Structure formats: C-alpha cells, structure tokens
Amino acid sequence: MNNKRFYIETYGCQMNFADSEIVNSILIDEGMTPVHEAGEADVIFVNTCSIRENAETRVWNRLKEFRSLKNGKKNLTVGVLGCMAERVREQIIDQEQLVDIVVGPDAYRDIPNLLAEVDDGRKAVNVLLSLEETYADISPVRTSGNGVTAFVSIMRGCDNMCSFCVVPFTRGRERSRPLESILREIQQLSDQGYKEVTLLGQNVNSYKYRDIDFTRLMDEASKTDPEMRFRFSSPHPKDFPEPLLHLIAERPNLCNYIHIPAQSGSSSMLERMRRPYTREQYLELIEKMKSIIPGVALSTDIIAGFCDETEEEHQDTMTLMEMVEYDLAYMFAYSERERTLAHRKYDDNVPEDVKKRRLTEIIQQQMAIQEKNNKKEIGSRHLVLVEGESKRSDQQLSGRTDTNKMVVFDRKEYQKGDYIEVEITGCTSATLMARPLKKRSISEYHAEPALV
Ligand code: 5AD
Ligand code: SF4
C-alpha cells in the first residue's frame, strides 16, 4: 500500500482525459489520494499529447516548472504519462533530469511497481505498447467533470496511418474493448445519475468485438437507459456505416450530431494524406447524413498547409467547408511529426506565413458559417441537458442541445442533469441564448416535440 497524494494534469484529446480516469482508479486502489493542486501532491503526473509541436512545447515548459518545484520539495516524484512517453524517455536517458518516471499509454497497470522503483532511488520507465490492453476491467474514477456527461473508451490505438499523424506510433495498434465491459460501465454511469455518454476511440467505426460492430454497439449502448443520451468520437469517413445513420434517425437517445473529420477538401491532398476517400465521396456521405437524419449537426477537423499544398487545394478545402456548412470545426496548421510518413517522404514546404494565412481564412469563413447557422436557430425549440451554471452568471444555466450546441438560459427552478425544453432567442457564433419552457424527458419530448 502507498499513502501518497497524487495530482494528474492532462493535455490533449478526450482519450487522454479518459486515460487519466483509469490512472486515478489504479492509484486509488493502491491507497493513494487524489488532490486538485500540484503543490499539495507527493507525486505529480503529466498526461501528455504529441499530436502537434505546440502541444509538446506546453508539456516541456510545464515539466520545467515542476522541476523547480522538485528543487524546493524533497521526495516529490514527477512522472510523464501517455503519448510523449517515448520521447521523454530518450531525453531522460540522454540529459535533462526532468522526471523520475515515464509510462506509455499501454503500461498504466505497471505504475505501482514503477513508483516502488523510484522509492528505491531508480528512474523507472515502461513504454511498451500492447496488442491487447484495453483496461476493460478497470472502472475509471471521474474526479473532475460535471457529474452529468462522461466519456467511455471503447477501443485503443489506430491502424490507419494517415501520413501526417503520430497517433499510430504513440498509441499503437487498434484493439476493441469487450462489449460487456462497455455496457457495464454505461450501466454504472446511469446508476450514478450521469445523463450523457460519449463513446471514444481513435477510429470508432473500426470497433469490432467478436461479431459485434460499431452500429450494433451503439444499438446495445443506447438500450441500457432510454433517458441517457449518446454521442461518439471520432469516426472515419472511409467506411462510415449507413445502418448507423438509420439507427441515429430512429433512436431518440442517439444524438443528431456527427463529428466527421475531413482534414482537407481536395482529392489530391487527401491522397497525400493517405485518407482513402475523395472530395466527392466525402460530400456524398455528408448528403446521406443530411437526408437520413433531418437537422443533423456536423463538425470536422481540418489541417491547413500540409506538404505541397497549392492555393487551389486550399480553395478546395474552403469550398468543401462552405458546402457542408459545419456547425463546428477544429482547425489546425500542419505540424510535422517525427516517424510519420510525411516526415520521411514529404517536404514540410508551405511557408509558415502562408500556413497561417490559409488557417486564418479557414477560421474566418467557419465563424461566419456558424453565426449564420446559429441565427437560423432563433425561434426554434430544443431539448437541452443542463450541465451546470453558466460561466458568466450563477443565475444562468448552461447545457447542450442534442445537436451539441451550447445554450445559456435563466436558472429558474431547474437543476444540473435536467432535460429542459427551450426556445432559442439569440446567438453568437459559439453560443445560443434561450428561454426555458419546461422540464421534460427524452421519450416524452420525442413523442410530442413541440410543447403547446
Ligand atoms: N498537424 C496538424 N494537425 C494534426 N492532426 C493530427 N496530426 C496533425 C499534425 N501533424 C489533427 C487532425 C486530427 C486531429 C485530432 O488533429 O485534424 O483529426
Ligand atoms: Fe491519426 Fe488518422 Fe488514426 Fe485519426 S485516423 S488517429 S488522424 S492516423
């Protein structure tokens, strides 16, 4: 047993946040206590991200801050978890004595042993990747969060090898978590009062456990509790299953919202990115989504300035985004990552100022589209799941529509975890303002959507 206090700081994607909840569980089982301030901890872990250079830079800077904390506090242990583990390991062996312990994304079960090694005065490292590890039997401990919405990991790793992406190297091969353990976790969340679950994986439509595919998983998951609603992230456009679209359209608690990363709107660029679909095939999929699920909200990921990107290819991305009219987009300038195909074979040859200018054009156009989309919402009704007080005022609540739009409205007698029917009265490009009408349930709302 170990009675130390630990603090975990998490960077990067939702998957990393879900992983930190697994590590919470492992450490609490050891007898350790989570604390919310680095200054109160005996052990500090940084769960890291490698996806772009600026993510890594932030982590390196943070580790340097923790090193000065270490200088003032004897027996403070600092550890690195997750995607940067391999790189930090090299650094530790080479030179800077920044951290004591380094743990890759598939080695979290080994943390107690590694901590014991550190207590014995050694540096401890485990960065082995696994073909099987899904942490299926570990119940994540959610020490932060709102108690209403939760992430559940359904698979790990990625086999897609997009040419720009380091994830297949940092997180290893794709593997799916057993269905029963996913359903058990969802049931526990429902029993604890959670109202929304996002199923997570690097590439969710590759989910395969025995003869169960992703559509069947969504079907089973959504049947566990009809008053709990479900989202998923992220699917790949290359093999998005059409039966899932019909299931989303029919099932009231499957949200009418799909995050479907395009990365680029140019077929030649998609080929260089090793994304096995064309602009036309992507647009065809979007049309299918819009026609099968009326009112579906869509979001995407876009990379500006990938290797050899011409002005024409950039314009293809602009027009694709204009045609789809995404409700939300995550937009990035290309950042070269070691080990990827692009690093080995292509030249990162779009000048920084051109990358920045293209990214700005993409972002500005997207903000205008979002504002236009949001204006169309004024006067319409939505069912909002209340996630908590709004950031601006404790007299207002905030939550999301089924279509994943943030809504703010007067508190009245409503509470966190309630489903409230609202009428939209105003908007910005990021938020909708609304008038709350009545507390409702998902099933009742879908049986009779417009309250009279
Ligand atoms: N540079 C910029 N953006 C990247 N992404 C992945 N790799 C890179 C990179 N090297 C983006 C992709 C992906 C999202 C999670 O991060 O858009 O979908
Ligand atoms: Fe990276 Fe492509 Fe896998 Fe997504 S699908 S994690 S972008 S390699």
Structural class: alpha/beta
Question: Going across the major beta sheet, what is the strand order?
Answer: 2-1-3-4-5-6
Distance linking N and C termini: 60 Å
CATH class of the largest domain equals Alpha Beta
Total beta strands: 21
The CATH architecture term of the largest domain is Alpha-Beta Horseshoe
The hetero compounds bound to this protein are:
5'-deoxyadenosine, iron/sulfur cluster
Characterize the biggest β-sheet. 6 strands, parallel
What's this, in brief?
The chain has 452 residues and is of the alpha/beta class. It contains 14 helices and 21 strands.
What does this structure look like?
The structure is a single chain. The model has no long low-confidence stretch (mean pLDDT 95). The termini are far apart. The protein has helices at 14-29, 53-72, 85-94, 111-119, 167-171, 179-191, 214-223, 242-250, 267-272, 279-292, 311-324, 341-345, 352-376, 442-447, and strands at 5-10, 33-34, 43-48, 77-82, 101-103, 124-126, 149-153, 155-156, 175-176, 196-200, 208-209, 212-213, 229-233, 257-259, 297-304, 328-333, 381-389, 396-401, 406-410, 419-427, 431-440. It is an alpha/beta fold and 452 residues long. The strands form 6 sheets. A 6-stranded parallel β-sheet has the order 2-1-3-4-5-6, sandwiched between helices. A 5-stranded mixed β-barrel has the order 17-18-19-21-20. Helix content is 36%, strand content 23%. The protein folds into 3 domains: 5-126, Rossmann fold, CATH 3.40.50; 149-376, Alpha-Beta Horseshoe (pyruvate-formate lyase- activating enzyme), CATH 3.80.30.20; 381-447, OB fold (Dihydrolipoamide Acetyltransferase, E2P) (Beta Barrel), CATH 2.40.50.140. It is built from 14 helices and 21 strands. The structure holds 5'-deoxyadenosine and iron/sulfur cluster. Residues 158, 160-162, 165, 167-168, 202-203, 236 line the site of iron/sulfur cluster.
